[in-house]
Amino acid sequence: MATGLCYDRRMTSHRIIEGEHPEDPKRISVIYEKIVNCGLVNDPEFSGTSNPENPGLMVRIEAREATEREIGLIHSRDQFEFARELEDHDDEQLIMMTNEADSVYFNQHTFMCSKLSCGGAIETCLRVAQGHVKNAIAVVRPPGHHATPDCSMGFCIFNNVCVSAKTLQERMPDIKKILILDWDIHHGNGTQDAFYNDPSVLYISLHRFERGTFYPNDPRGDSTFCGSGQGTGFNVNIPWTEGGKLDGDYIYAFQKLVMPIALEYNPDFVIVSAGFDAAAGDELGECYITPAGFAHMTYMLMSLAKGKMAVCLEGGYNLSSISDSALAVIKVLMGQAPEKILDPVASPAAANVVQQCIDIQMRYWRWASERGNGLSLDVRAWQEKILWEKYKMSSAPVMHPSGLVFDNALLMSYKATELVEIAVLEFNNIFLAAIRPVVSN
């Protein structure tokens, strides 16, 4: 199967009325133009030539406007009505509302573009989930991960990824667990808010935090905020203490923290909140991630969920960086190996942040717990072998109160009934994704 692409030039109609703004309509058009110029899509409007016999290597996914009901899976009625009423305001009112808002602008086309952006993300995810394409990218705007259920902020109107995740779970019964990986340089506070109590969505975010002084200036972007209620343990923040991050820092975080947790969670679908504002040259992010860095992260994530993955554009404000980075991600989605990384070693500051996160995640994940005990996965496999031979103990799943099943959460035997009940009770109380082995005499 081919890789899918969702793009609709109508989304460029959302633009600031006065002055300039980093969230420029050209953000999506330069990505699309790059894709066309590389021969991945046949579009005479951009290439200047038409070749009907060569439609391109990517499958086009048509964007549509998300419905009120779909948006209502995440956003309040008041939030939807606020966006709808933008169409009725004149320029003077919209300028005043822009000046009063939290880093977001409005015009008469904002509502339509926001529904297209959200609907495009939904259709992208559905096409992958339904098997029409093997994976896909949604080149959409305005972005979404800052939009909370009740508020537009941070260049975002509706939370495209959150609405898509909920729609997937509603329409595709086989998709019960979704991983949302957010590599945008800003913390996706809206995504965290939407799923903070929900174990059916694992949210992992790598972002500049700097003790809450980096946008969105929310202290809940710290690593200690791990979810609540049934969602405890299913929110993972990796908060960088400063800018200047390199490829090696992100790859280290993926290898040591992101991928082990993701593999243990074993999602049915992966959605990437793909902000490219950590890319080299982006003045807002002030980091130095190369196209190869984003490509390697994509490559690792493709090992999950049988490759069912949708990449949805979030931030990224350097037009050259965003187009080069998006193209590198697309090439990996299509099956090309990522380019070589030139700086694969993590900085001491980044390694320290990752270790602090591991220390916190020890409470929720079997992998991290074993790591804290100095046990490798090879040692754990040896333990399971010995316990089977000596006590006839084997791995067993545990059902979370939400109905989700986590494989290999326990080691148990018919002789360990009481101890297993204790372990299950502990699991239900603090919602661990895994339990330490139980040994019976």
Automatic annotation (TrEMBL):
<dbReference type="GO" id="GO:0031934">
    <property type="term" value="C:mating-type region heterochromatin"/>
</dbReference>
<dbReference type="GO" id="GO:0000122">
    <property type="term" value="P:negative regulation of transcription by RNA polymerase II"/>
</dbReference>
<dbReference type="GO" id="GO:0000791">
    <property type="term" value="C:euchromatin"/>
</dbReference>
<dbReference type="GO" id="GO:0070824">
    <property type="term" value="C:SHREC complex"/>
</dbReference>
<dbReference type="GO" id="GO:0070823">
    <property type="term" value="C:HDA1 complex"/>
</dbReference>
<feature type="domain" description="Histone deacetylase">
    <location>
        <begin position="21"/>
        <end position="333"/>
    </location>
</feature>
<dbReference type="InterPro" id="IPR023801">
    <property type="entry name" value="His_deacetylse_dom"/>
</dbReference>
<keyword id="KW-0539">Nucleus</keyword>
<protein>
    <recommendedName>
        <fullName>histone deacetylase</fullName>
        <ecNumber>3.5.1.98</ecNumber>
    </recommendedName>
</protein>
<dbReference type="InterPro" id="IPR023696">
    <property type="entry name" value="Ureohydrolase_dom_sf"/>
</dbReference>
<dbReference type="GO" id="GO:0031508">
    <property type="term" value="P:pericentric heterochromatin formation"/>
</dbReference>
<dbReference type="GO" id="GO:0031509">
    <property type="term" value="P:subtelomeric heterochromatin formation"/>
</dbReference>
<keyword id="KW-0378">Hydrolase</keyword>
<dbReference type="InterPro" id="IPR000286">
    <property type="entry name" value="HDACs"/>
</dbReference>
<dbReference type="GO" id="GO:0030466">
    <property type="term" value="P:silent mating-type cassette heterochromatin formation"/>
</dbReference>
<dbReference type="GO" id="GO:1990342">
    <property type="term" value="C:heterochromatin island"/>
</dbReference>
<dbReference type="GO" id="GO:0045944">
    <property type="term" value="P:positive regulation of transcription by RNA polymerase II"/>
</dbReference>
<dbReference type="GO" id="GO:0005730">
    <property type="term" value="C:nucleolus"/>
</dbReference>
<dbReference type="InterPro" id="IPR037138">
    <property type="entry name" value="His_deacetylse_dom_sf"/>
</dbReference>
<dbReference type="GO" id="GO:0042802">
    <property type="term" value="F:identical protein binding"/>
</dbReference>
<dbReference type="GO" id="GO:0003682">
    <property type="term" value="F:chromatin binding"/>
</dbReference>
<dbReference type="GO" id="GO:0000183">
    <property type="term" value="P:rDNA heterochromatin formation"/>
</dbReference>
<dbReference type="Pfam" id="PF00850">
    <property type="entry name" value="Hist_deacetyl"/>
</dbReference>
<dbReference type="GO" id="GO:0031078">
    <property type="term" value="F:histone H3K14 deacetylase activity, hydrolytic mechanism"/>
</dbReference>
<keyword id="KW-0805">Transcription regulation</keyword>
<dbReference type="GO" id="GO:0140720">
    <property type="term" value="C:subtelomeric heterochromatin"/>
</dbReference>
<dbReference type="GO" id="GO:1902794">
    <property type="term" value="P:siRNA-independent facultative heterochromatin formation"/>
</dbReference>
<dbReference type="GO" id="GO:0005721">
    <property type="term" value="C:pericentric heterochromatin"/>
</dbReference>
<keyword id="KW-0678">Repressor</keyword>
<dbReference type="GO" id="GO:0033553">
    <property type="term" value="C:rDNA heterochromatin"/>
</dbReference>
<comment type="similarity">
    <text>Belongs to the histone deacetylase family. HD type 2 subfamily.</text>
</comment>
<keyword id="KW-0804">Transcription</keyword>
<keyword id="KW-0156">Chromatin regulator</keyword>
